[in-house]
Amino acid sequence: MVVTLVVLTEKGFRFSLIISQLLAKAIPVRGAKIQRLAIRKNREAFLFMKHESRRSVLTAHPSSTAPRYRYRNV
């Protein structure tokens, strides 16, 4: 299992892009197709990606009650 920090870089997440550039293993993601499984506003933009064979699952961090996202490799 490989865990990588993923940061969304849309207009609402510009601060996260700055943080991602400071972190060694952070990669900015643009245009990712994310399907929201739970709707909440103003949550953390930092997501951990768990690489699997055909899909990757993004889980919001640090709160365990934060919304979960599903990212599909297309």
Automatic annotation (TrEMBL):
It comes from the Bacteria. This is Uncharacterized protein. It comes from Dickeya dadantii (strain 3937) (Erwinia chrysanthemi (strain 3937)).
